[in-house]
């Protein structure tokens, strides 16, 4: 598949959430609907999705989503209790990576992909603060497919409300600064009848 450079006649909208102790900006329609449709279908078919398992109170359980890790180097990589054998970038990922790098102004080394098959799939509260990500990591999150709500919660400021951000087909959420030190985030399950969703988080991993 070949891609054309985006024509910036339709500028994506940047929404700065101005959260205390964080830097979170949402670029809606960062990918055109045509690009997003193409990428969603292609990623679904070509990414080597894996079913991870975790031990929970001695019981082995499937995590509620499929995952994959791609990047510059293919050394075995363990984090959040999961083991990954990263694959080399493919054409779709290189295209998406380039586009988000033009805004994030960093060169990403890795991309973690999550495939939420339906509303029963989810990701629980966590911070992306592994030491391999360094201090104040820059994380570029791209969504294709069904809308899911991305929730953010401050770790100790009980006076602050939870922030719910709808992530739609083609949206790009950029998290940086102190975000991962002070806020946790999750993708809750939903009882709504919805289709599948793919999320990509580009990261800089230092070995
Ligand atoms: O699916 C999402 O939008 C979030 C994924 C996420 O938080 C992660 O991969 O660390
Ligand atoms: Fe995360």
UniProtKB/TrEMBL annotation:
Q: Which GO terms describe its biological process?
A: DNA alkylation repair
The UniProt keyword set, sorted, is: Dioxygenase, DNA damage, DNA repair, Iron, Magnesium, Metal-binding, Oxidoreductase
Recorded GO molecular functions are:
catalytic activity, acting on DNA; demethylase activity; dioxygenase activity; hydrolase activity; metal ion binding; oxidoreductase activity, acting on paired donors, with incorporation or reduction of molecular oxygen
Q: Please give the start and end residues of each transmembrane region.
A: none
Obligatory cofactor(s): Fe(2+)
Say which domain of life the source belongs to: Bacteria
- InterPro entries the UniProt entry points to: AlkB-like, AlkB-like_sf, ALKBH3, Oxoglu/Fe-dep_dioxygenase_dom
Q: Where is the Fe2OG dioxygenase domain?
A: 107-206
Give the protein's recorded name.
Answer: Alpha-ketoglutarate-dependent dioxygenase AlkB
**Which organism encodes this protein?**
Seonamhaeicola marinus
């Amino acid at each position: 598949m070949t891609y054309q450079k985006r024509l910036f006649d339709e500028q994506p909208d940047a929404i700065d959430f101005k959260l205390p102790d964080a830097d979170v900006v949402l670029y809606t329609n960062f990918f055109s609907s045509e690009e997003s449709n193409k990428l969603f279908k292609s990623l679904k078919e070509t990414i080597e999705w894996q079913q991870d398992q975790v031990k929970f109170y001695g019981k082995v359980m499937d995590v509620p989503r499929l995952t994959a890790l791609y990047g510059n180097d293919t050394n075995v990589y363990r984090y959040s209790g999961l083991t990954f054998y990263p694959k080399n970038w493919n054409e779709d990922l290189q295209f998406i990576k380039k586009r988000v790098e033009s805004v994030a102004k960093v060169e990403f080394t890795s991309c973690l992909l999550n495939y939420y098959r339906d509303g029963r799939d989810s990701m629980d509260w966590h911070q992306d603060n592994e030491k391999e990500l360094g201090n104040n990591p820059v994380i570029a999150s791209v969504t294709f497919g069904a809308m899911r709500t991305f929730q953010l919660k401050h770790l100790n400021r009980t006076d602050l409300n939870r922030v719910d951000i709808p992530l739609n087909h083609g949206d790009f959420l950029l998290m940086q600064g102190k975000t991962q030190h002070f806020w946790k985030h999750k993708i809750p399950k939903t009882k709504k009848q919805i289709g599948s969703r793919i999320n990509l988080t580009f990261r800089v991993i230092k070995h």
